[in-house]
Amino acid sequence: ARIADGTISNNGAKQVFDALWSGEAANVDAIIEAKGLKQMSDSGELERIVDEVLAANAKSVEEYRAGKDKAFNALVGQAMKATKGKANPAQVNEVLKRKLS
């Protein structure tokens, strides 16, 4: 349920299962909070981060607009790095595509 509603990523879910299995905690939400696994849900914050990534990576933006799809992946990677992996990758893709079109 936490993956479906975007609270955590698949990787985060694995960490939650590991914690439950090892007996670290019995409450899923407590594990998510304690381990800082909650995905970024503030779309305004994500928009700001994507704007910064685009400004700092003008060469990748140029390459993407010239038809190099790998440049898009580089921009997604930079956005994920900027959010320390907390952004929802699908949301990052959506925001980037909108801003690059």
Strand content: under 5%
Oligomer description: single chain
Instruction: Provide the CATH architecture of the largest domain.
Output: Orthogonal Bundle
Structure annotation, total helices = 6
Low-confidence stretches: none
Gyration radius (Cα, Å) is: 16 Å
Q: Helicity level, as a percent range? A: 55-70%
Structural class: mainly alpha
Into how many domains do the coordinates divide?
Answer: 2
Q: Note the run of SSEs as H and E.
A: HHHHHH
Structural features, described:
The structure is a single chain. The protein has two domains: 1-39, no CATH class; 43-100, Arc Repressor Mutant, subunit A. It is mainly α. The chain has helices at residues 10-22, 28-34, 43-56, 58-65, 69-82, 89-100. The protein has six helices and no strands. The protein is elongated. The longest helix has 14 residues, at 43-56. The model has no long low-confidence stretch (mean pLDDT 89).
